[in-house]
Amino acid sequence: MSLHTIVPTCQRASCTRVLVYSYYRNWYLCQMQNILPVENFLEKLISEKILLIDSRSEKEFEHAHIPGAVNIPLLNNDHRHLVGIEYKKNGREAAVEMGFELVGPLFHEKIKAVKNFSNRKEVMIYCWRGGMRSSIMAWVLSLSGYKTTMLKGGYKFFRGFVLQQFEKPWKIKILGGHTGCGKTEVLKELKKLGEQIIDLEGLANHKGSAFGSLGLPEQPSNEYFENLLAIELSQLNLEKEIWVEAESRSIGRIKIPDEFFFQLDQAPLYEIIASRKFRCNRINEEYCKFPKDELAECTNKIAKRLGGLKLKEAINALNENRYEEWLNILLDYYDKTYMHSLNERKSIERRKLHVDDLDKSSVIAERLKMISGELRTA
């Protein structure tokens, strides 16, 4: 795609030069904007709930972004490609001039886009390095009466902040138990009791098994999952313990960051021990509402691990509405998998909690909180 196919033919070089000159003449306006480091930037964003603008291209935004941001690109995908070529060929000044040729006539559209997202005359902005794209966006919006805050170092510095969160020494307690014992529900009940939690499956949009994607939105990119996890961690008290559900290294196609997974693997385990009847009833309520073809497709995902004969038995039972038999075949496999992962754990600290078939998640959570407190003070 050439520049002439994007820039209106009525665009005049003199107008471009005026914009470029105006930008450099008013550069100090951008420098006078409120520019905050990542921690302060996020604190302001979360506490004041201000519109967050990602001024990078659509492709950059779709790959991953700061949670809660909206994409109002200064340069769209095609523009960014052309400006990049111009920068390599003729340097920064030529690239800036081309950028203004491309987006100068569109500044009013950027202002309208911001108004469509929020009536508030204050915004927060970032780009890749916290440089030209976010500063130009801040300049344009400030001329329209907006108060702007920019992120120092941009998304690049934010990613550094993200990775730092996984290296912090978190006081983790792992909530474990065989498939179907209701760990996720108990985790949510622990939160209601004032405990700190991290719901990894909720952040990953996946429940961790071959059936984990049923009824859930598409999983985020791995980078965006890390961003979500880091934001969650940054809002927790490092001095207090946090509950995290036991997971393998991967949740669906999401990989848990190595530094954080290492801490999970070494943390003490609180294991819910429930009867197979209890677990079958829960799984039946949670999964058997889905169409048989979807359940069969998920069953086929573990065909190699089940073996040909067991797979055939499971599919036949499913097609003939013998759900209990189908579930028992699956649980035989998942129970073996769970025991294997249990034996592979680095931590040997393990506390069991036996539950009755009629116990509600809230009751189990209360008992877990009690025994974990006893263990801590012992």
Detailed description of the structure:
The structure is a single chain. By secondary structure, this protein is an alpha/beta fold. The protein has two domains: about 5-160, Rhodanese-like domain (Oxidized Rhodanese, domain 1, 3-Layer(aba) Sandwich), CATH 3.40.250; about 170-375, Rossmann fold, CATH 3.40.50. Helix content is about 55%, strand content about 15%. It has 19 helices and twelve strands. A five-stranded parallel beta sheet has the order 1-5-4-2-3. Helix 4 (about 60-65) links the parallel strand 2 (about 50-55) and strand 3 (about 70). Helix 15 (about 290-300) packs antiparallel against helix 17 (about 310-320). The longest helix has 22 residues, at about 325-345. The protein is elongated, with a radius of gyration of 26 Å. The chain starts with 12 loop residues before the first helix and ends with a helix. The model is unreliable at about 1-15 (pLDDT under 50).
As a percent range, the share of strand residues is: 5-15%
The helix fraction, in percent, is 55-70%
- Uncertain residue segments: 1-13
CATH class of the largest domain: Alpha Beta
Shape: elongated
Determine Rg (CA atoms, Å). 26 Å
Can you list the strand order of the major beta sheet? 1-5-4-2-3
- CATH topology (level 3) name of the largest domain: Rossmann fold
Q: With helices defined by DSSP (H or I, 4 residues minimum), what is the helix count?
A: 19
Largest sheet, described in full? 5 strands, parallel
